[in-house]
Design brief:
The structure holds two protein chains of two kinds. Chain A starts with a helix and ends in an 11-residue tail after the last helix. In chain A, about 70% of the residues lie in helices and about 0% in strands. In chain A, strands 1-2 form a two-stranded antiparallel ribbon. Chain B has two domains: about 60 residues; about 70 residues, no CATH class. The longest helix of chain B is centred in the N-terminal third of the chain and has 26 residues. The chains are: A mainly alpha, B mainly alpha.
Chain lengths: ~500, ~150
C-alpha cells in the first residue's frame, strides 16, 4: 500500500457527490434513529437498493452516514421522551430524560451529540491505524486458520447476541445452511433451488434482510399497538426549546469536566466494537458504569448528570468504527450494521477480506475519509436540525411505518426485478416475527447467512490441503487455538450460563 | 418459555430430519468425480443440517428432562398472535399479488391504506391523502432519480 493510494483515497471522499450523499445519509440516519422502533440497520437495509445507481464509494459513504447518524439519533428520543430510539441509547435515558425534566434537555442533546461525534471519531482513527496491519497479519493465515477463525467468530457471535446461547447457535447454523441454497461453488450444481432459476444465485440477500429485520419488526410493533390500543399512555414528552441561558448549551467548563469520561468511554467502546458480537448496547452500559464508578459523586448519576449522558453516548458511538476492523480485514461482521455494510460491499463488487487493501486500496481509504467527513456532518447537522428531529419523533408511527413498508416492497423489487424476491421478503418477515417471539436471534441468522459462503470456501480449501492428512492440522497453532476457543465458547455459553449483561436485545 | 422451547426445538429437529432425509437427497445431487475440490455439493448442507438438528434435539431433551414445568409459563405466541400473523401474512400476500397484477401505482395506495388502518388510523382524510401521495412520491423518486420504473 503506497502513500499515494492513501492520499488519493482520502481525497476521493471529498468530491461534491460524496459530500452530498454523506450529509443525506446522516440526515436519514438521525431521523430513523430517533424514531422509536426503527434503527440504523433497518435504515441501511432499506437504502442499500437505492445505492445501485451510485458508484461503490458514494454508495458506502451514504450508508455509513446513515449508520453514524442513527447512532446519535437514538439519543434524541431517549432524552426527549425517555424511549431510546435504538437499543444502544438505553443507557442514555438514565440521565438524559431527567436532564430534560430539569429544563436542560437541549444541553443533554448537545452533550450527547458532542460525545457521540468524539467517540465515533476516536474509533475511526483506531480503525484507520489498525485495519491495514491487521489485514497484513490476516494474509499470513492459510485456509485452515481462516476456517477456524470464522467458526469461532460465528460461535461467539451466535452465543452472545440474543438472550439464549443455544437458540442463537441454532439460528446461526440455520443461516449458514440457508446460504448453501444456490449453485455449488465448485461444480455449479444446483442445490435446493427446487427448479427455480431465480434461486440459482441463492436466496436474495436484501429480500431476506429487509423481510426479517424491517418488516418483521414493524409487524411486532403493529401487534403491540393492537394490544395496547385502549391503554392510556402517560404523557412523557418534555419540551426543551423553552430553556434559557446556559440550559440551552454545553459550556466549556462542563465539556472540559466530561473530557476524561468521554475519552474513557471511547476506549471502552472501541475495544467492545473490535470484538465481534458484543455490540453498542453493552458498550453504552459499560461506559456508563465505568463513569459512575470513577466519579466522586456517583449518587448523582441517574438524576440528571451530564457526565452520564456523555459516558453512554461516547461508548456506544465508539463501537461503529471499531466494528469495521474485523469486517474489512477478515470479512467477519461484528454486528448487524457491519453485516449489512459487508453485504452492500459484496453487491457493489468488492469482496471483503485480507486482500481488500491490495485490491481496493483507494476505495478503502476513501471509505475511511468518508467516515471522518460523516462525523463532521453529524456534528453540524445534529446541531442545526434539533428542532426538526424533535418534531419528527412526534409524528405517529401509523404515518411513518406504512411508507416504510412500501419502500421495502419497492426497494426489494429494485434489486432483482423479481416477484420471487418479494415473496422471499414476505416469507422471511413472517419467519422473523416467529423467531423474535420465540427468542431465536435474527441477528445471528443474518450474520451467519452472510458469512456462510466464505466459511464453506475456507472449509473446502482446508479439506483439499489436509483431507488426506488431517493430523497435520495439529501442527498449525493458530488453527488449534481457534478450534479450542470455539469449543470453550460452546462449553461456556451453552453448557454454562451466559452473563446477563452480555444479553443483547433481539 | 419452557413449553415454547420444547415445541420450537422439536419442530426445528423434525425439520432438520426432513432436510436430511428428503430435501438434500432429492434436491442436492452429490458427486465426487475425478478428484473433486475437497467437498461434494451436498457435504456442507449436510454438515449444517446435522448440526442444527443436533442442537435443536439437545435443547428439546434439556427442556424435557432437566427443567421443571412452570405453572406461570406463558406461551410467547398465544392464539391472538397467531391470528394476527395470519391476518398480516394475508395482507402482505395480497399486496404482493396486487403489485404484480395491477402495478405499483394502483397497488401502492391499497398497501398504505391497509397498513394505516391496521395501525389504528380511522380518519378518511389522512388515509386517503397519504395513500395517494406516498406511492406517487416513491414511484416518481424511483423513476426520476434511480431511473428505474416500478411495475
Amino acid at each position: 500500500m503506497d502513500f499515494e493510494t492513501i492520499i488519493a483515497g482520502f481525497a476521493s471522499s471529498l468530491t461534491l457527490a460524496n459530500l452530498v450523499f454523506i450529509c443525506l445519509g446522516v440526515i436519514v440516519g438521525i431521523v430513523v434513529g430517533a424514531i422509536p422502533g426503527l434503527n440504523g440497520p433497518m435504515a441501511i437495509a432499506i437504502c442499500v437498493p437505492l445505492t445501485f445507481v451510485l458508484d461503490p464509494l458514494t454508495a458506502i459513504a451514504f450508508l455509513i452516514g446513515i449508520n453514524k447518524g442513527a447512532n446519535y439519533g437514538g439519543s434524541v428520543s431517549a432524552i426527549l421522551i425517555n424511549v431510546p430510539g435504538a437499543a444502544e441509547a438505553m443507557a442514555t435515558t438514565f440521565d438524559g430524560y431527567p436532564l430534560a425534566r430539569l429544563g436542560k434537555g437541549l444541553k443533554a442533546l448537545k452533550m450527547s451529540l458532542y460525545a457521540s461525534v468524539w467517540g465515533d471519531t476516536f474509533s475511526d482513527l483506531v480503525l484507520i491505524l489498525v485495519a491495514a496491519p491487521f489485514a497484513i497479519m490476516a494474509l499470513k493465515m492459510g485456509p485452515s486458520e481462516l476456517f477456524a477463525v470464522l467458526l469461532f467468530a460465528l460461535t461467539f457471535i451466535a452465543a452472545l447476541v440474543g438472550s439464549s446461547a443455544t437458540k442463537g447457535i441454532i439460528a446461526a447454523i440455520a443461516g449458514v445452511f440457508l446460504s448453501t441454497v444456490g449453485l455449488d461453488p465448485e461444480a455449479s450444481t444446483p442445490r435446493m433451488t427446487f427448479g427455480q432459476l431465480d434461486l440459482e444465485e441463492g436466496v436474495p440477500l436484501l429480500a431476506l434482510i429487509v423481510g426479517m429485520l424491517v418488516l418483521s419488526g414493524i409487524l411486532i410493533q403493529i401487534e403491540e399497538g393492537w394490544r395496547t390500543r385502549h391503554a392510556k399512555e402517560p404523557e412523557q414528552r418534555v419540551s426543551v426549546f423553552d430553556a434559557k441561558g446556559d440550559d440551552r448549551r454545553v459550556t466549556w467548563p462542563e465539556f472540559r469536566g466530561c473530557l476524561r469520561t468521554i475519552f474513557r468511554s471511547s476506549i471502552i467502546g472501541t475495544v467492545i466494537g473490535a470484538l465481534p458480537g458484543l455490540g453498542s448496547t453493552l458498550a453504552g452500559f459499560l461506559g456508563y458504569g465505568a463513569a459512575k464508578r470513577a466519579s466522586k459523586t456517583p449518587d448523582e448519576f441517574g438524576k440528571g448528570k451530564l457526565e452520564g449522558v456523555a459516558a453512554a453516548e461516547a461508548a456506544n458511538s465508539a463501537v461503529v468504527g471499531a466494528n469495521l476492523i474485523p469486517t474489512l480485514s477478515l470479512g467477519i461482521p461484528g454486528n448487524l450494521s457491519a453485516a449489512i455494510l459487508l453485504g452492500a460491499l459484496i453487491i457493489h463488487g468488492v469482496q471483503p477480506g485480507p486482500m481488500i487493501f491490495e485490491s481496493h486500496g483507494e476505495l478503502i481509504y476513501g471509505i475511511f475519509g468518508a467516515m471522518l467527513v460523516a462525523n463532521f456532518a453529524n456534528l453540524l447537522i445534529g446541531h442545526g436540525g434539533l428542532r426538526v428531529f424533535a418534531y419528527i419523533i412526534s409524528l405517529p408511527n401509523r404515518y411513518i411505518h406504512p411508507v416504510i413498508v412500501l419502500m421495502c416492497f419497492a426497494g426489494t423489487y429494485l434489486t432483482t426485478q423479481s416477484m420471487l424476491a418479494i415473496g422471499v421478503m414476505v416469507g422471511f418477515a413472517l419467519l422473523g416475527y416467529i423467531m423474535r417471539k420465540l427468542d431465536y436471534s435474527i441477528v445471528a441468522f443474518i450474520i451467519a447467512f452472510i458469512m456462510g459462503p466464505m466459511t464453506e470456501d475456507a472449509l473446502r480449501q482446508t479439506m483439499v490441503l489436509f483431507g488426506d492428512r488431517p493430523t497435520e492440522l495439529l501442527t498449525r497453532p493458530i488453527t488449534m487455538v481457534f478450534f479450542a476457543l470455539t469449543a470453550y465458547s460452546l462449553w461456556r455459553f451453552v453448557v454454562g450460563r451466559k452473563p446477563q449483561i452480555l444479553a443483547e436485545p433481539n | 418459555m419452557r413449553k415454547a422451547d420444547i415445541v420450537s426445538a422439536g419442530v426445528v429437529a423434525v425439520f432438520g430430519l426432513f432436510v436430511l432425509l428428503v430435501v438434500i437427497p432429492v434436491w442436492v445431487p452429490g458427486h465426487l468425480e475425478g478428484g473433486g475440490y475437497g467437498l461434494r455439493a451436498q457435504d456442507f448442507p449436510l454438515f449444517t443440517a446435522i448440526s442444527f438438528s443436533l442442537f435443536a434435539a439437545g435443547l428439546f431433551a434439556y427442556r424435557v428432562f432437566f427443567t421443571k414445568p412452570d405453572e406461570a409459563d406463558e406461551t410467547p405466541i398465544p392464539p391472538k398472535s397467531w391470528r394476527f400473523l395470519a391476518i398480516a401474512g394475508g395482507v402482505l400476500a395480497a399486496i404482493t399479488v396486487l403489485l404484480d397484477t395491477v402495478g405499483f401505482l394502483a397497488g401502492g395506495p391499497v398497501a398504505i391504506g391497509a397498513f394505516m388502518v391496521m395501525m389504528g388510523e380511522r380518519r378518511p382524510l389522512p388515509v386517503v391523502s397519504l395513500s395517494l401521495a406516498a406511492p406517487l412520491a416513491v414511484w416518481l423518486f424511483f423513476w426520476k432519480f434511480l431511473e428505474f420504473p416500478l411495475p
